[in-house]
Description:
Elements: H1 2-10, H2 17-43, H3 48-73, H4 78-81, H5 101-116, H6 118-137, H7 143-168
Helix pairs in contact: 2-3, 2-6, 3-5, 3-7, 5-6, 5-7, 6-7
Amino acid sequence: MDLLLFEKINGLVNNSKILDFIGIFFADYFQYFLGATLIVLFIWKKNRLMVISAAISVFLSRLVIAEIVKNIVHRARPYVILETARKIINGNTDFKSFPSGHAAIFFALAMAVYFYNKKLGIWFFVAAILMGIARIFVGVHWPTDILGGAVIGIVSGVFVRIIYSKTRGSNKQPS
């Protein structure tokens, strides 16, 4: 199923210059837009706790959990083992594919933001999903890499929220 879904999504590469551009944008450059959005949100005092929570969630998901799993699993990226894979972005000096670090980051951000601002959190989840599909499209991840990263990111966001609630002595939503 993983191979079939990868081939369906990655097989769309080079069929449309516009689709290729959109895929490359979401896979490689959209992260800078979201990072800038978080910096702007941090400027407003009322959003600082949300941004700090998101940053901690990202740290936990990407730099701790995803790295540990990557070093245990050692799964090769699609373009490394599939002759038919069409890799259309540069980079990826790390050939370990599972879990997707990008998915871990974006889903951790989305989950953390969602706890503080439901509407903005939904937009972050949409962005995370688009980025995940784009990472498959450009040939650097398997669908299950994205799913694994998403689970790690969401769990990290929930974990940070639980720890925050316990340190505050209540289960109330932050204001």
